[in-house]
């Protein structure tokens, strides 16, 4: 639970820290001058993408209640962030690592969308099941009929399911 909670809070900091790391890495590890504009633009896009994924993850009610992301989120976001950190070193395989980072970002985005839709579907289905149960229990309007009263004693059992008194 500690790791999942740590990632919950890390996502907010990562929106600022990781793009800054790429910029610092560009200057420290020998980025070329003509690359500066491309690095600046890509860091802006990176920050927006990370913010979008974090907001989609935060949109899930279960994540907000527990203040912890799922293990699937931890795996994908961790891989994505590690690839971003690797991009900041500007290694000879930097192009491959950058492509892997973009692919991991897209996977994290679509995974968080799928989890949000799945959770929303379950919650909406629960509401519909509640309505269906209420309709089956006779709470839906029915034709009014007179109770049958026999001579003698009879027992009336209140079920508690009828909200009308």
Number of strands: 0
The rounded Rg comes to 28 Å
**How far is the first residue's CA from the last residue's CA?**
47 Å
Average pLDDT taken over every residue: 86
Number of domains as seen in the coordinates: 1
Q: Give the structural class.
A: mainly alpha
Beta-strand content bin: under 5%
Count of helical regions: 5
Poorly predicted ranges (pLDDT <50, ≥5 residues)?
A: none
| Biggest β-sheet strands, sense, barrel | none
Shape: rod-shaped
- Tell me the helix content: over 70%
By oligomeric state, this entry counts as single chain
Provide the succession of SSEs: HHHHH
Keywords: Membrane, Transmembrane, Transmembrane helix
Transmembrane segments: 7-28, 34-59, 71-91, 97-117
Q: Can you walk through the features of this model?
A:
By secondary structure, the protein is mainly alpha-helical. It has one domain (2-136). The chain contains five helices and no strands. Helix 1 packs antiparallel against helix 2 (36-58). The model has no long low-confidence stretch (mean pLDDT 86).
Main features:
single chain; 165 residues; mainly alpha; 70% helix; transmembrane helix; transmembrane; membrane
Blueprint of the fold:
Elements: H1 2-28, H2 36-58, H3 61-66, H4 71-87, H5 94-136
Transmembrane segments: 7-28, 34-59, 71-91, 97-117
Keywords: Membrane, Transmembrane, Transmembrane helix
Explain briefly what this protein structure is.
Keywords: Membrane, Transmembrane, Transmembrane helix. By secondary structure, the chain is mainly α. It is built from five helices and no strands.
């Amino acid at each position: 639970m500690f790791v999942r909670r740590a990632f919950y809070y890390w996502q907010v900091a990562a929106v600022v820290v990781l793009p800054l790391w790429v910029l610092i890495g560009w200057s420290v590890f020998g980025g070329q001058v003509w690359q500066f504009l491309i690095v600046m633009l890509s860091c802006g896009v990176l920050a927006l993408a990370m913010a979008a994924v974090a907001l989609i993850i935060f949109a899930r009610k279960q994540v907000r209640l527990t203040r912890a992301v799922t293990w699937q989120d931890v795996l994908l976001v961790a891989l994505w962030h590690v690839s971003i950190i690797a991009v900041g070193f500007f290694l000879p395989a930097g192009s491959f690592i950058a492509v892997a980072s973009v692919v991991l970002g897209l996977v994290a985005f679509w995974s968080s969308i799928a989890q949000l839709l799945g959770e929303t579907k379950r919650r909406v289905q629960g509401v519909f099941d509640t309505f269906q149960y209420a309709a089956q229990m006779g709470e839906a309007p029915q034709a009014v009929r007179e109770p049958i009263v026999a001579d003698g004693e009879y027992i009336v059992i209140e079920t508690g399911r009828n909200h009308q008194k």
